[in-house]
């Protein structure tokens, strides 16, 4: 059996071999005909506004793919909200980037979907701690993409250790049910105390308290078994929850009644923005997994809109080079690039690559701040995939 995982290598991606086969056929036909037109191509999800904001992510990897190619590229900043129109424009000889389209769209589509879902979760519980717990739901090779996109959308922390090493962030986490089960039914105190004694001092003491018995009972037992317990976590399976809000309130009441009002209450397990909104007033924090990590990729397409300086686009696509703008009132506007934009509007497409040289720096913290500020600017209301 091969020791290799089923993963396309970075080298194959950079060389354009992670492509749909018809781009190979396209290159063969163009080379045979001696054609290599200068084109303008745009990456767009929707031609016009839809009323549903998306958060651009994946631009760092997309830039690395195009770096060194004889092209000029403009793009929205990483962490920019958008609603229709191009997020990227590529100008150059078509054969220079033809084979890269498949990978380029993948680099943008999937992270943008994840970041948008993270933004939805963030705005569902704006005053709460919201952590990314979704790595187990995706192929491990894209764990860093998921965690980076989740942070970009505003989540407060990540759980994947290797992903944290890639993106320069420390992963966090406490204990799974497996730890509790290893100590056996009735021995929950031993598990909590072993955890307390073993982990580094800076690790928060958060006890999982729904493994064998009533959640309120286990929460109280944990608070009395571990000195300076920071919090308890309920990960109760949906099939046993009943009225989950009532359970959470009962746990809070029980802890408070016994003098443990300083013990925080965290929730996880299949949470969505809807459940975050329902529970944000009775819990201190949440771990969101599948809702964010399992996000559908945004349906970006790359379309040629000009050939040798002349408008050219297929049916159903808006022809000609375009610009997108943010107006003072937070509006998102799309217009032809050779026309004046709205009065007092800011152009969002900024230089990214000039003749193969990257002219922009990437800073995750700056992108996170940009996303939060832009969400406020446009009046983002957190419409979710559930609605």
Automatic annotation (TrEMBL):
<dbReference type="Pfam" id="PF02749">
    <property type="entry name" value="QRPTase_N"/>
</dbReference>
<keyword id="KW-0328">Glycosyltransferase</keyword>
<dbReference type="InterPro" id="IPR036068">
    <property type="entry name" value="Nicotinate_pribotase-like_C"/>
</dbReference>
<feature type="domain" description="Quinolinate phosphoribosyl transferase C-terminal">
    <location>
        <begin position="114"/>
        <end position="303"/>
    </location>
</feature>
<dbReference type="InterPro" id="IPR053190">
    <property type="entry name" value="NAPRTase-like"/>
</dbReference>
<dbReference type="GO" id="GO:0004516">
    <property type="term" value="F:nicotinate phosphoribosyltransferase activity"/>
</dbReference>
<dbReference type="GO" id="GO:0016757">
    <property type="term" value="F:glycosyltransferase activity"/>
</dbReference>
<keyword id="KW-0436">Ligase</keyword>
<dbReference type="InterPro" id="IPR035809">
    <property type="entry name" value="NAPRTase_arc-type"/>
</dbReference>
<dbReference type="Pfam" id="PF01729">
    <property type="entry name" value="QRPTase_C"/>
</dbReference>
<dbReference type="InterPro" id="IPR022412">
    <property type="entry name" value="Quinolinate_PRibosylTrfase_N"/>
</dbReference>
<feature type="domain" description="Quinolinate phosphoribosyl transferase N-terminal">
    <location>
        <begin position="20"/>
        <end position="111"/>
    </location>
</feature>
<dbReference type="InterPro" id="IPR037128">
    <property type="entry name" value="Quinolinate_PRibosylTase_N_sf"/>
</dbReference>
<protein>
    <submittedName>
        <fullName>Nicotinate phosphoribosyltransferase</fullName>
        <ecNumber>6.3.4.21</ecNumber>
    </submittedName>
</protein>
<dbReference type="InterPro" id="IPR002638">
    <property type="entry name" value="Quinolinate_PRibosylTrfase_C"/>
</dbReference>
<keyword id="KW-0808">Transferase</keyword>
<dbReference type="InterPro" id="IPR013785">
    <property type="entry name" value="Aldolase_TIM"/>
</dbReference>
């Amino acid at each position: 059996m091969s020791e290799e995982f089923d993963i396309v290598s970075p080298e194959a991606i950079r060389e354009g071999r992670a492509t749909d086969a018809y781009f190979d056929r396209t290159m063969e036909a163009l080379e045979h005909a001696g054609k290599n037109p200068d084109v303008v191509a745009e990456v767009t999800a929707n031609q016009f506004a839809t009323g549903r904001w998306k958060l651009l992510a994946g631009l760092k990897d997309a830039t690395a793919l195009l770096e060194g190619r004889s092209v000029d590229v403009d793009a929205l900043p990483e962490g920019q909200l958008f609603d229709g129109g191009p997020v990227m424009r590529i100008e150059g000889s078509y054969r220079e980037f033809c084979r890269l389209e498949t990978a380029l769209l993948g680099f943008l589509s999937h992270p943008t979907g994840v970041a948008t879902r993270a933004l939805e979760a963030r705005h569902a519980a704006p005053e709460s701690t919201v952590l990314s717990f979704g790595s187990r739901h995706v192929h491990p090779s894209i764990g860093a993409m998921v965690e980076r996109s989740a942070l970009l959308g505003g989540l407060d922390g990540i759980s994947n250790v290797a992903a944290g090493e890639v993106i320069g962030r420390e992963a966090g986490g406490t204990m799974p049910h497996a730890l509790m089960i290893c100590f056996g039914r009735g021995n929950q105190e031993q598990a909590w105390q072993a955890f307390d004694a073993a982990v580094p001092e800076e690790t928060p003491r958060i006890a999982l308290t729904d493994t064998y018995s009533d959640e309120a009972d286990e929460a109280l037992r944990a608070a009395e078994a571990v000195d300076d317990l920071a919090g308890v976590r309920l990960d109760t399976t949906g099939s046993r929850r009943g009225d989950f809000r009532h359970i959470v309130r009962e746990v809070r009441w029980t802890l408070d009644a016994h003098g443990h009002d300083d013990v925080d209450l965290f929730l996880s397990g299949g949470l969505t923005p809807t459940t975050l909104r329902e529970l944000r007033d009775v819990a201190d924090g949440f771990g969101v997994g599948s809702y964010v990590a399992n996000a559908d990729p945004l349906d970006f397409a790359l379309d040629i809109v000009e050939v040798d300086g002349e408008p050219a686009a297929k049916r159903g696509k808006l022809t000609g080079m375009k610009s997108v703008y943010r107006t003072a009132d937070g509006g998102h506007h799309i217009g032809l690039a050779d026309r004046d934009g709205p009065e007092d509007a800011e152009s969002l497409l900024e230089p990214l690559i000039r003749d193969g040289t990257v002219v922009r720096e990437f800073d995750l913290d700056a992108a996170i701040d940009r996303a939060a500020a832009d969400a406020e600017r446009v009046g983002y209301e957190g419409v979710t995939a559930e609605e």
